[in-house]
Amino acid sequence: IYLEKGASAQSAFDQMAQLSDKNGGTFSAFQIKLLAWVSLRASNYKVGEYEFDSKATLSELLTRLSTGKITQRKVRIAEGVTWREIKQAFAKADLTHDAQDLSMSDLVKAVGITEPNSPQSIEGLVFPDTYLYRKGEKESEILKRAHELLNKKIAPLWDKRATDLPYANEYQALTMASIIEKETG
């Protein structure tokens, strides 16, 4: 079941009735709506995608919709990848593709990279990890989370650095670490 922003509860009932019919059940949208009202779970459904086992009960479906337990998908940003490789991973994911065609400077702005003297590229400014997302989430939101996670991880390391290092900021140190990693590979 997929509930888009602005979708009514009736849309959820219709989709559940279609699932019932598809799986040999006999519930109509009206019957589902009636059960939802009786069980006090007839409104405030959360936007998102919901997956259910074919043996799930109607009560379980209504509970998941009312509690907002949406299906999470995964996309991986691997270590040392280029922006082109990140775009390829994103293109395969069920994301809203709002970053694919941006210039690098527009992308850096969209992600919110504002640190002084940071490189004008997304490469090296996102933390390599597997990110959970909901169907239709924007690519730029994933990149923002990846950049924020990098900042969260690098800040305590930069604060503990030796005082005589020849780097003006954490991004220069990160660039050198990447060069050393590539050379020693």
Short recap of the structure:
The chain has 185 residues and is mainly α.
Written description of the protein model:
With about 180 residues, the chain is mainly alpha-helical. It is about 50% helix and about 10% strand. It is built from 7 helices and 4 strands, in the order βααβαβααβαα. The chain has a two-stranded antiparallel ribbon with strand order 1-2. It has a two-stranded antiparallel ribbon with strand order 3-4. Helix 1 packs across helix 2 (about 30-40). The longest helix has 21 residues, at about 140-160. The model has no long low-confidence stretch (mean pLDDT about 85).
Which key phrases capture this entry?
single chain, 185 residues, mainly alpha, two-stranded antiparallel ribbon, two-stranded antiparallel sheet, 7 helices, 4 strands, 48% helix
Strand order of the largest sheet: 1-2
Order of helices and strands: EHHEHEHHEHH
Q: Over all CA atoms, what is the radius of gyration? A: 23 Å
Could you tell me how far the N terminus lies from the C terminus, measured between alpha carbons in angstroms?
46 Å
Q: What is the number of strand segments? A: 4
Layout of helices and strands:
Elements: E1 2-3, H1 9-22, H2 29-38, E2 48-49, H3 58-67, E3 73-77, H4 83-92, H5 104-111, E4 129-133, H6 139-159, H7 170-184
Antiparallel strand pairs: 1-2, 3-4
Helix pairs in contact: 1-2
